[in-house]
Amino acid sequence: MYGYTVFHEDIINSLIRSVREGRSANAYIFEGDKKLGVMNAAELFAKTLMCLEPDSAPCGSCGPCEEIETGADPDMIRIAKPKDRASIGIDIARDVINSALTKPIYSRRKVFLIENGDLMTAEAQNSLLKILEEPPEYAVFIIICESEDNILETVRSRAVTIEFPLVGDDVVKRYIKERYPDEPRMDFMVKYCAGLPMAADDIINNEEIETERGDAAELMKLLASRNKTDAFKFADYFDKHKDNAAVICDMLMMYLRDALVENLCGGGIINTDKGEEIRAVATARSASELAEILDEVIVMKKMIGRYVKTSAAALHAALRCK
């Protein structure tokens, strides 16, 4: 769509229409998993806002449209968490405010894309309130986050929240076919993605994926075990595999969902090649216990995303499952 891979064309078309009709706001929260292409959607919307042809934005041929595609437009400001920090602090928020008080150079608007909005500290968010309450007419802020719950209510009340929900299997399948036409595991891949098309990129481009899937099956058994010693084995694995922690958590969550389905329905699992391990866990714990274990892995992944020490997050989750 306009050169971007997006999965919610109805949402984007509505946003584009609001710009063409002069109804855009000064602040937005784009809420959705990054594997739904939310960043692509934000960039396309930013291009629409900055286009010099508002009646046909994004025209694709004006200066701002062309420069945004090359990443050279000085009026689109990207704010991201510094690599050496765990969060976006108040100093960065103050820089944003100072920049927002300067008019755009070439474009109709100056757009601030705040990546990982979930990681803004409360102090940073409170500081941004100053500019959100009385924003310059030309400034637009797009806060990108996986969960709006991590954004202060005072910030949320001054922004328009755009939710990007999970998509249907047909959309996932179309994405995989277009990007990986020779992929032989289509049925499994669609189920694995579970409404997140770009999750396919992780598994297809990861040469170690089958090893990791096997590891995740063993980790699931460690979580389901009532032996506290297994909790330390679980944490030790994650201490040695910090770089792949998020992917392993995703696999664990999928296996545990399968175990819960097996427990409740006696079939219908996605990971059929791991059926033996899944059935063993499904019979070892009750449905309510499996749901609680799944919740602990979800919390664990969020903790790791917030830069809690990986092994500490893993041990916390594993001990709570005993």
Tell me what the structure shows:
The protein has a five-stranded parallel beta sheet with strand order 2-3-4-1-5, with helices on both faces. The mean pLDDT is 94. The protein is built from 15 helices and five strands. β2 (76-79), α4 (90-100) and β3 form a beta-alpha-beta unit. The protein is globular. It is 54% helix and 8% strand. α12 crosses α13 (275-284). With 322 residues, it is an alpha/beta fold.
Keywords:
5-stranded parallel β-sheet, 5 strands, about 325 residues, about 10% strand
* Total DSSP helices: 15
Q: What's the gyration radius in Å?
A: 22 Å
What is the topology, as strand order, of the major beta sheet?
A: 2-3-4-1-5
Beta strand count: 5
| N-to-C order of helices and strands | HEHHEHEHEHEHHHHHHHHH
Question: Mean pLDDT across all residues, rounded?
Answer: 94
Instruction: Label the overall shape.
Output: globular
Output the structural class.
Answer: alpha/beta
Helix content: 40-55%
Major sheet details? 5 strands, parallel
The poorly predicted ranges are: none
Distance between the termini: 48 Å
**Percentage of residues in strands:** 5-15%
Summed up:
The protein is α/β, with parallel strands linked by helices and 322 residues long.
Topology overview:
Layout: H1 9-20, E1 27-31, H2 38-50, H3 63-70, E2 76-79, H4 90-100, E3 110-114, H5 122-133, E4 139-145, H6 153-156, E5 160-163, H7 169-179, H8 186-193, H9 199-204, H10 209-224, H11 228-240, H12 245-265, H13 275-284, H14 287-305, H15 310-320
Parallel strand pairs: 1-4, 1-5, 2-3, 3-4
